[in-house]
Structure formats: structure tokens, C-alpha cells
Amino acid sequence: MAPIEEEERMTVSVRDVAAAASVSVGTVSNVLNRPDKVAPATVARVTAAIAELGFVRNDAARQLRAGHSRSIGLVVLDVRNPFFTDVARGAEDRAAEAGMTVLLGNSDENTDREGAYLDLFEEQRVAGVLISPLADDLPRLQRIRDRGTTVVLVDREVADQSFSSVAVDDVVGGSLAVSHLIDTGRRRIAFIGGPMGIRQVVDRLDGARRAVAAADAEGVSLEVIETESLTVLAGRAAGEAIRERAASDRPDAIFAANDLLAMGVLQALMMQGSIDVPGEIALIGYDDIDFAAAAVVPMSSIRQPAALIGYTAVDLMLKEADGETARERVVFQPELVVRESTSSRS
Amino acid sequence: MAPIEEEERMTVSVRDVAAAASVSVGTVSNVLNRPDKVAPATVARVTAAIAELGFVRNDAARQLRAGHSRSIGLVVLDVRNPFFTDVARGAEDRAAEAGMTVLLGNSDENTDREGAYLDLFEEQRVAGVLISPLADDLPRLQRIRDRGTTVVLVDREVADQSFSSVAVDDVVGGSLAVSHLIDTGRRRIAFIGGPMGIRQVVDRLDGARRAVAAADAEGVSLEVIETESLTVLAGRAAGEAIRERAASDRPDAIFAANDLLAMGVLQALMMQGSIDVPGEIALIGYDDIDFAAAAVVPMSSIRQPAALIGYTAVDLMLKEADGETARERVVFQPELVVRESTSSRS
DNA sequence: GCGGCCGAATGATTCGTTTCAGGCCGCCAC
DNA sequence: GTGGCGGCCTGAAACGAATCATTCGGCCGC
Predict the structure, then answer these.
(1) Do A64 and B58 touch (CB under 8 A)?
(2) Which of A170, A187, A225, B34 has the highest CB neighbour number within 10 Å of its CB?
(3) For B141-162, what is each residue's pLDDT tens digit?
């Protein structure tokens, strides 16, 4: 007895469509790609056959022939960070304009995962890779580029012109944040952020240091509290550590390396209403994510044009892939957004 | 004068590797896929050649041969909603266990974009599609399924067993939320959510209605305020409309269809401290995203096991694709999380 | 009536990988 | 000495769409 045929796995190919419409495969391909080159009656016949058979193009075959895909790879540090989803949105918008797609990879601040995505994207022969790189593995990116895949750095610059890049000046951002704290009367400032392998963190801290150095005020100190990641959880841990200190030993202002951290810090400080923000401690974050404005205490932050960064990154990638321009560096300026969490002590 | 050779677009294939290592292409493929079947010395030679030439597998060719890809498509309503990024994380985890990848598509509550992603995924011959469908275009999904792509519904059930699905009982969730509001003494309840094309919204409203009907209290009313989307912005607009009403005309409790909306409503109500939450109006959201706990007024919400939903969805997809089991429906139960935004009037 | 031309359609070939039926060789058992 | 076996390797045949040099047929102009 023959086994029951479970499921008719119908794989309809151009050949089948061609047969059904009594034309050659070449003509089917033309209908698909240059319908104006085919006689209207034929187009109609082929289209009907496609609909009837439920033909769906096989992208793998297309790509194999074309040599490259119509997708763009984007590797970000943390998808759960609204800043990066905004970047992704911007990238998607520009990609859609060019009829392309964005594949989103999440390195989760983890070198191995970052590497896995890079491998994947290279194997997929994506048109380009946009990456917010974790550490300084530029040689690797260079190798990828040398093998023919365009690479654009997101939120990261590199001194020589070896890559196109889109970034925001994080040193200026850090400086803006801390100058603001000093201007509103704070003196014992703490920077919370990490790991120090991440460039953004280092730059923002650098900016903070410069603001302190440049301050036209006395007795300004800067304490650095390193965290293991840039998440709400890490922020909460850091905040709890501060809450447990003697009141005299606490900073009177905190600059968190991003809003996620800042939200965690805020939660920890306010737990059981133990520490008043901004009365006792002022708090400023970075990125100005949507939720910052809706926090327990509406949070001051440094705004970056997230969607625009993504949009521009894809733009540069397309330009470079076209060989149209030389590599290009775009740098946006951050902007201070003042809310209640840094208002002066009443 | 010959034009300068701009860039040596080197496309290294298995054939080149084979030549370099003096073996056949079949052997190179074996080294790549079943190294244990190849003599150690040969493996070493081939591996060296791969490294030297910088060979990178061409996924398109692999896929073409295999007939299907090692990716899973996931279409969500809104990437900016942390609930969905959590679902995506869960899905990624399960996919990674199976050596597969998740492609994330964002329909943005837009039918066209949803359709575009479905087309794309089908052309890519993904192993399966997980979708949180926008409206009731089941026939379309059925067609996709009939053409051989496994489809799993996420956060959506369907009466007959025509699809595997993972969902949370939103009617129960809506009921939980409103019962809680009634239990804490609220009477004039407003439901904020929309568009009504989205099933989750309708079900949560349905649950709300049931809770009102079942209430063991007098004078309970339910007003429905429809929004255009489930975003912070839409919530803010709805909240502003309420703030502008005469105090006597305002509800004393609001149930928002998700936390994003709720955050927007909260922002609007508290603007200039005009309306006290929960004193004047209690507020409860849905999803229990991380930021809910850190809101101006820590927000009560209905918790769903987001990551688990994603994980399970991939799991069901893999099972169904293996033909291992019949289609399966998994339903999780939501959970009430009480915070300050619904505490009783002091 | 014929050469020339043009739009339309053809179909063999290509992309890079995996698979699979064989082939070769050395070794063991009889 | 021969048959059989297993380990290792080979190379041709797919997979499905796109390309492009050809061919076909009809029409115009002379």
C-alpha cells in the first residue's frame, strides 16, 4: 500500500507558469521585470497563469543570479532601547524609498552575537551593513568591506576616512549635560555608565570631564560609577548603591549615560520615597526617548536625532555602493532638553 | 589608455577554494557541512584555503538548493512597543536554539506594510511566518499556508483549528482591569483604545464590558473613546480631550488598551498638574512594559508573558513544520499588576 | 516582390552550493 | 588470490530566475 501523500508541496516555478501560459520562461521573466517590453495580451495571459498557479518568485534564485540582495543589514547594540528602534525606523524609511529592506540584528552588547550577525549578513550578500560597533574591531569590518560589502558606521566615527559614518557628537552631549548640572548649582556630580568598552559611554564621560574642567565654579567633583550594561536593570542596581550610602556621601547630581540607565536610577532612588529628585539629587539622561518625558519625574535628557541617523546611514550606504561619492562622515549635534529632574532646588 | 580598475570585486566560490586546496568542490562542501566525513589533513588544507582566499558562503545558493531558508519571519504591529520587542526577543531565543534566525517586520498597524512583509517573507521562502495580524485577512494567510509556508498566529486566536496560535486571553485581561477599577471604588469608567480593527483592542473592550455587566455595584458606566492608533501620541491626544472637559464630565477611571496609550494619557492629564492621578482619575494600562513601573505615577497594568509568547510561537512553528503534531493553540492567562495609578482615593 | 527593419518571444546558459551515485585504494578474511 | 568492505574523494546534476544573443513574423518602402 502506498503511503498517503501527506501534503502536496507544490513548488511552482517560472517554468510552470510558462507552460500554463504557453510562452517561454524568458517571456515570463520579462512580464515580471519589464512588462512594457511584452505585448499586452501576453502580459494578461501570463498574469492570469501566475494568479491561477499561485506562483511566488524565489528570492534566493533571483539573488544568486543578481549577485547581491536587496536587503540592508543593521546591527544595533540593544533593540530594547527605544533610541535604536528609532534609528531602525529611520533606516527602514530610507530603504523603502529605494525598494529595499532592513534586516535588524541585535548584538545585545555582546561581541559574539555581533560577530554572528556580521557573518550572517555577509553570507546573505546584503547590499550593505550598518553597524553600531561594540568595540574596536575595525580590522574585521575592514575585511568585510574589502570583500565587497559596503559598511557604514552608525553612531561612531573613525579618524581616518576609512569608513562612511553617521554620528552624534557625544563629547559635546556629555559636556552639555554636565554644564547644565553645574549651571543649576550642582557640585558633586556622578557619572553612571558602562561598560567602558562602548565608545558612546567613553565619549560622554569625556564630555562630562571637560565640562567639569571648564566650569567657572569651585568645588566641582566628578565621580564615575561604572555599570555592566546600559539597561534599566543596571541603572536600578547603581541607584540602589547610591541610596544605601550615607546622605552626606551621595552626589547631588547624576548624569546617566543613557535614558534607560537613568530610568533605573530614578526608580531606585525614589523607592519608598527615600531620595527626592531633583530636590536632593538632580538627574539627567541621554537619548531623550519617549518615555523620559513620562517618567516619575519628567527627565531632562540629551536629544539625538535618532530616526535621522538611521535615514542618513542608509543614504550614505546607497551612495557609497553606487560608487557615486567618496566615503563621507556626517556628524549631528545633540541638544539639551530640560525637564523637572534637573530643576533647581526650590 | 585602459580605465583604472576601480575595485577588484572578488567573488570567491567553492570552486576557487577547491582549486586552491587541490580537492573537488564536493569535498569543500563536505568540509563545510560534515567535517567528520573528511580526512583531518584534507580538512586542514581546505580550511587554510578558505581563510587565505577569504571565502564566504553564498547563502542564496545554499537556499536555492535547499528549497527553503533558515530564517523565520515575524510581523508585529509596532516595533516601538516594548511588548513586541520582548516577543521578538523570545522568538529569537528559540530560533537560535534551532540554529535559525528571526527576520523582524514592522507592519505599523498598516495593512499595506503588513502585506509587503508577507510577500517578502514568502519570496524568501522563510521556514515559517509568525504574525500578529492586523485585521481579519485570514484567507490570505490561508493561501500562504496552502502554498507551503507554515503560519503561526501570534497574540490572536482563530476559532477553528486552521492555524497554530499563541495568544493571551484579552477578554480576561480587559475584565481583570475593569473589575479592579470597580473594586477600588470607581464608577465612571472610560475605555481608551483603537482602532477597532485590531482584535486585541476589541477583546479588551469586550472584557471591560463584561466586567461592568457583572459588577456587583450600582451606577457603573463605561464610556468608549476610540483612538487612531496605540501610541503614546494617540494617548496624549485622548488625554488632552479629557483634560479639557468640565471636571464633572470627566471619568473617574481610565482603562487604556495598552501601556503606550496609558503613558500618553498620563502625560496629558498631569500636564501643569491639572488632574491628579489617581486622586481624581485612576489609570490602568495593558502589557506591563518596563517603563510602566517607572512612570510619573507608577502604573497599574495587565501583564502578559511577552518573551514566552515569542518563544512558544517559534516552537509551534517548528513542530508544525516538522509535521510532528497537528496544529496547536496555546493560550496564556494575563495577570493584574497593581501600582499607584489605581490606588484608592486617600 | 523584395530587402530591411522592428517588436516580440525564445531558450540555452549562468549564478554557487549541495547532493549523490560512483570510483579508487588499501586492508582483512577466507 | 580474490571478494568484500569502508573510508575518502570525485564530478556531474540539480535548484529557479535572469540574461542576451537569436530567431521569428509581420510590415513598410521602394
Answers:
(1) yes
(2) A170
(3) 999 998 889 999 998 877 777 8
Among the listed residues A241, A331, A342, A264, the one whose alpha carbon sits nearest the alpha carbon of residue A301 = A342
CATH number for the domain formed by residue range(s) B68-168+306-334: 3.40.50.2300
User: Do B6-57 and B170-304+336-342 have matching folds?
Assistant: no
* Whole-number Å distance between alpha carbons of B306 and B40: 46
User: Domain extents for chain B?
Assistant: 6-57, 68-168+306-334, 170-304+336-342
Q: Give the cell for residue B19.
A: 582549486
pTM, full prediction: 0.86
Listed by number, the residues of chain B in 163-222 with a beta carbon closer than 8 Å to a beta carbon of chain A are none
Whole-angstrom distance, CA of residue A311 vs CA of residue A74: 12
- Which residue out of A69, A290, A343 would a mutagenesis test of the B interface target, given it has the greatest number of B Cβ atoms within 10 Å? A290
| 3-state secondary structure string across chain B | CCCCCCCCCCCCCHHHHHHHHCCCHHHHHHHHHCHHHCCHHHHHHHHHHHHHHCCCCCHHHHHHHHCCCCEEEEEECCCCCHHHHHHHHHHHHHHHHCCCEEEEEECCCCHHHHHHHHHHHHHCCCCEEEECCCCCCHHHHHHHHHCCCEEEEECCCCCCCCCEEEEECHHHHHHHHHHHHHHCCCCEEEEEECCCCCHHHHHHHHHHHHHHHHCCCCCCEEEEEECCCCCHHHHHHHHHHHHCCCHHHCCCEEEECCHHHHHHHHHHHHHHHCCCCCCCCEEECCECCHHHHHECCCCEEEECCHHHHHHHHHHHHHHHHCCCCCCCEEEECCEEECCHHHCCCC
Per-residue pLDDT, averaged over A287-291, amounts to: 91
Contact of B63 with chain A, judged by CB distance below 8 Å, is answered with yes
Architecture of domain A6-57: Orthogonal Bundle (1.10)
CA A39 → C1' C3, Å? 26
The residue of chain B with its CA nearest to that of A57 is B123
B92 vs A: CB within 8 A: yes
CATH superfamily of A170-304+336-342: Response regulator (3.40.50.2300)
B186 CA → D6 C1’, Å? 81
Rounded to whole angstroms, the Cα distance separating A228 from A182 reads 27
Determine whether the interchain pair B10/A148 forms a contact, defined as Cβ–Cβ distance below 8 Å: yes
CA distance A327 to A162: 7
Distance in Å, residue A38 CA to nucleotide C2 C1'? 29
Tell if B61 CB is < 7 Å from nucleic strand D.
Answer: yes
pLDDT value at position A6?
A: 37
A343 interfaces chain B, CB cutoff of 8 Å: no
- Tell me: the pLDDT tens digits for B238-262? 999 999 999 999 999 999 999 999 9
Q: Which nucleotides of C are covered by protein (CB under 7 A)?
A: 7-12, 14-21
Dump pLDDT digits (tens) for B186-243: 999 999 999 998 889 999 999 999 999 998 888 899 999 999 999 988 999 999 999 9
